[in-house]
Specification:
Layout lengths: L2 H12 L16 H15 L4 H8 L3 H9 L12 H29 L13 H14 L15 H15 L3 H8 L3 H9 L10 H17 L5 H10 L28 H10 L1
C-alpha cells in the first residue's frame, strides 16, 4: 500500500466515529478553531459545495448553521454538536486526501512511472542482517487476522531499537522485512506510552516479527508475556491508539495510574 494511503488508514483507526479533536497538550480543540478550518475548506472547495459536503459528513443545515453561528445556550454546548466531531474528523482525513490528490496530479502531469533501481551491493554486516531477517520472516505463524498482541507499544519499540543495534540492520531494511512503509515505522517509533501507536501497522507487524524470532531461537515466553496473556485474554492488547489522555470532571484531578492501559484493564477485570 502506498505511504499516504497507509497513513490514511492509520488515521482512520486513530479517529473512529465520535472522535474528539485534542490539542497537543491534551485539551479539547476550541470550536472557534474548527469554525475557521471549516470556512477555509469550503472556500477552497468552491461555491455551491456546502450542501454536498454536509451530506458527506452527515449533518443538517440547521445543525451546521447553529454551530457556525455559535447560537448555543452555553458556549460549551458547541462541543456536543454533531458538527464538532464529524467536521473535525473529516478535516483530519482531508489533510491526507489533499496530499494524495497533489501527488496524483503531479504524477499525471509528468507522466512519470516508477524507475527500477539497480540492486545495491550490501556490506557483509548488512548482508548478515538481511539473512537474519529473512530467516525470521520465514517462520510460519498461525493465520489469525489480526494476530493477538501481548507486548505493549513501548516494549515493541524497545525491541525494535535493540534489534537494530544488535543486528546492524537499518530501520529502512527492517521496515521492508516486516512489510510496512518507512514512514509508518518512523511514526510508530516516535510515540511514547504503552498504548500510543497501537493503531499503527508497524506495531502489529513488528510484534509478529519478534514472535517469529522467539520461535526461531527457541526462547520461552517471559513471565511478563504470560502475565499479559492472562490479563488481556485471547484478543490481546487493543489495536487502537491510546495516548493516555482520560476524561475527568472539571476541577477533579486525574489519577495518573489511569494513563496506564494495563492498570485500566486490571480495574475492569475486578468489576
Amino acid at each position: 500500500m502506498p505511504y499516504l494511503e497507509e497513513q490514511l488508514e492509520e488515521k482512520k483507526r486513530e479517529c473512529p466515529e465520535g472522535w474528539i479533536p485534542m490539542t497537543p497538550s491534551g485539551k479539547l480543540r476550541g470550536p472557534g478553531v474548527l469554525r475557521n478550518a471549516i470556512k477555509k475548506y469550503l472556500e477552497e472547495r468552491g461555491t455551491g459545495q456546502q450542501g454536498t459536503w454536509l451530506s458527506e459528513i452527515g449533518v443538517t443545515y440547521a445543525q451546521f448553521n447553529k454551530f457556525m453561528k455559535g447560537t448555543f445556550r452555553y458556549k460549551e454546548d458547541a462541543y456536543d454538536s454533531p458538527v464538532y466531531s464529524k467536521a473535525a474528523r473529516f478535516l483530519e482525513f482531508e489533510k491526507i486526501h489533499k496530499k494524495i490528490r497533489a501527488r496524483d496530479a503531479k504524477a499525471k502531469a509528468k507522466g512519470t512511472s516508477a524507475v527500477t533501481k539497480a540492486p545495491v551491493k550490501l556490506s557483509a554486516k548488512k548482508a548478515a542482517a538481511k539473512a537474519r531477517m529473512d530467516a525470521v520472516s520465514a517462520v510460519p505463524m498461525e493465520a489469525c487476522p489480526p494476530m493477538p498482541v501481548y507486548d505493549d507499544c513501548d516494549i515493541v519499540r524497545t525491541k525494535i531499537t535493540s534489534f537494530l543495534a544488535a543486528s546492524g540492520a537499518t530501520a529502512a531494511a527492517f521496515s521492508d522485512a516486516i512489510g510496512v512503509s518507512r514512514g509508518n515505522l518512523t511514526g510508530f517509533r516516535k510515540y511514547r506510552g504503552k498504548g500510543a501507536g497501537a493503531g499503527s501497522m508497524a506495531y502489529t507487524a513488528a510484534y509478529r516479527f519478534f514472535e517469529q524470532m522467539r520461535v526461531l531461537d527457541g526462547v520461552a515466553k517471559t513471565a511478563h508475556r504470560v502475565e499479559s496473556e492472562e490479563r488481556w485474554g485471547a484478543e490481546g492488547y487493543k489495536l487502537r491508539h491510546d495516548d493516555g489522555h482520560r476524561w475527568v470532571r472539571d476541577g477533579e484531578p486525574m489519577d495518573p495510574r489511569l494513563a496506564d492501559i494495563d492498570y485500566c484493564k486490571d480495574l475492569s477485570r475486578k468489576k
